[in-house]
Write a structure and sequence with these properties.
alpha/beta; Urease, subunit C, domain 1; TIM Barrel
Length: 396
C-alpha cells in the first residue's frame, strides 16, 4: 500500500478540494481518500495529471517556422511551410525533437497526450519510438502519407486502391485517424475513412471550423457547410478547434457523442480569433496546445492564456471560472482515456504540486492559483498508475 497524507486533493469529476487529506493506492488503483472540505493546509496539491488533448508533436523540428503566417501558409497539408519541413526532415532528428518535447511536457505535469501524426505509417512509428522511454501515455491519430489531389476531391472521387490499403496500415499502428480537415477530402473519402475506422475498431478525429475561411471554403467547394459534411459523412469521435462554432453547433456535436477539444493559444497565434471556450467547457471540452511549431506543450501556459483571454473577450469576469479551465486541462481530457478524475477505484494517475514554490502562497483559491500562477517549477511528482514517472514522492 502506498499513500500521501496532509495534502490537498482535488477530488472527482468536479475537482472538489479535500484538505488535510490522506490518499492511498495499491496495484495502481486508488483505494482510499479521506479528508475534510472546510479548509486546511494548502502547500502540496494532488490533482489529475494534465491531459494535452491535441498536439502535433512532429512539429517539434519546426519551432517558430510559421511566425507571421496565416493558417493556410503555416499548416495547409499541400502547400504549408509545415508540410515542406516535415517532408525534408531527417527521421533521427525528428525522433530526437519529439522526445525532448515529451520530456518537457512530462516535467510540466502532463501524463497523457492525444496527438495528430503526419507521415502515414512511418510517421506513427517514429512517434512511437520517440515516446517509448518517456512514459507519457499517448493516443496517436494518423493519416495518409500524402493527401489526395485537390482535383480528385473536387470531383467527389473515392480513394485509390493503394490509398485504401494505406488507410488500413495506418489504422493498424494507430488509435485511429486524425483528419486535417474535411475540405481536403470528398464525401466518398470521408465515408471511407469512417468505414475503415469502424472495421478496425478505431476512432476518428478531425479539425473543424478552425477559422471562418474553412467554413466558407467548404460551402464554395461542396455546397455544404463544413460541420454538416463532418456530421453526415465522417461522424467523428473527436472534434478539434471549433473556433468559428456557435453554441448550437457545439451542442449538436455533444449530442452526437463527439468529444470536443479547443486550442486557444494556437488559434490566437495564427490570427483566427478565439474559440467560444466557455461554451466548449460547459459541454466538457478538453484543452490542447496544438502544433509544437507554434506552442510549447505546456498546459500551465495554455490554462492561463485560455482563462484570461476568454475573460477579456467576453468582458465579463463571471463568464468563466478557473475551475472550468482546470477541468479542461485534466478531467475533461482524461475521458478520452476512459477516466473520471481522482476517486476510489480510478487509476492512481496524478500530479503533485508544491505551491510554496514560485510564490504561489498564500492561496485563497486553489483552482485560480494553479491556473494563474503555477508553472513547471511547482511540479514535484507525476504518477501513472501508482508509479512515479517524473520526480519523486519523497518530498516534504
Amino acid at each position: 500500500m502506498n499513500g500521501l497524507s496532509g495534502v490537498c486533493v482535488l477530488l472527482g469529476p468536479s475537482l472538489t478540494p479535500v484538505y488535510d487529506a490522506q490518499i492511498e493506492w495499491d496495484d495502481g488503483k486508488i483505494t482510499r481518500i479521506k479528508g475534510k472540505t472546510d479548509g486546511g493546509p494548502l502547500r502540496f496539491v494532488v490533482l489529475p495529471s494534465f491531459v494535452n488533448s491535441h498536439t502535433h508533436l512532429g512539429d517539434s523540428i519546426a519551432k517558430e517556422a510559421s511566425s507571421g503566417m496565416t493558417l493556410e501558409e503555416a499548416v495547409d497539408p499541400v502547400t504549408g511551410i509545415k508540410t515542406k519541413i516535415l517532408e525534408k526532415a531527417d527521421r533521427r532528428e525528428t525522433v530526437s525533437a519529439i522526445r525532448k518535447s515529451l520530456l518537457n511536457a512530462l516535467a510540466s505535469g502532463t501524463g497523457s497526450i492525444v496527438d495528430f501524426r503526419e507521415g502515414g505509417e512511418e510517421g506513427i512509428k517514429a512517434l512511437r519510438e520517440a515516446a517509448r522511454d518517456s512514459r507519457v501515455e499517448i493516443q496517436v491519430f494518423g493519416r495518409l502519407s500524402h493527401p489526395p489531389e485537390p482535383a480528385r476531391v473536387k470531383s467527389q472521387s473515392d480513394f485509390t486502391e493503394s490509398e485504401i490499403e494505406e488507410l488500413y496500415r495506418v489504422c493498424s499502428v494507430s488509435d485511429g485517424f486524425g483528419i486535417s480537415g474535411a475540405n481536403e477530402y470528398s464525401d466518398r473519402m470521408l465515408r471511407r475513412i469512417r468505414q475503415v475506422a469502424e472495421e478496425c475498431g478505431k476512432k476518428v478525429a478531425v479539425h473543424a471550423l478552425e477559422s471562418r475561411k474553412t467554413r466558407l471554403r467548404s460551402i464554395a467547394a461542396f455546397g455544404r457547410d463544413e460541420l454538416v459534411r463532418i456530421t453526415s459523412e465522417l461522424r467523428p469521435n473527436l472534434v478539434i478547434h471549433l473556433t468559428d462554432a456557435s453554441r448550437s453547433e457545439i451542442q449538436l456535436l455533444s449530442s452526437l457523442g463527439a468529444g470536443i477539444v479547443m486550442c486557444p493559444r494556437s488559434n490566437a497565434y495564427l490570427g483566427n480569433g478565439l474559440p467560444p471556450l466557455g461554451v466548449g467547457l460547459a459541454f466538457g471540452a478538453g484543452l490542447g496546445t496544438d502544433n509544437l511549431m507554434v506552442n510549447s506543450a505546456d498546459m500551465f501556459r495554455e490554462m492561463e492564456f485560455s482563462y484570461k483571454s476568454a475573460l477579456a473577450f467576453s468582458s465579463d469576469p463571471k463568464s468563466l471560472s478557473p475551475r472550468d479551465v482546470l477541468l479542461g486541462a485534466t478531467v475533461n481530457g482524461s475521458r478520452i482515456f476512459g477516466r473520471e478524475g481522482i476517486q476510489v477505484g480510478e487509476p492512481a494517475s496524478f500530479v503533485v504540486l508544491d505551491l510554496e514554490k514560485s510564490d504561489c502562497l498564500p492561496a485563497l483559491n486553489v483552482h485560480a492559483t494553479i491556473v494563474n500562477r503555477c508553472s513547471q517549477e511547482n511540479v514535484v511528482c507525476v504518477l501513472r498508475e501508482g508509479q512515479p514517472i517524473w520526480g519523486t514522492l519523497n518530498f516534504s
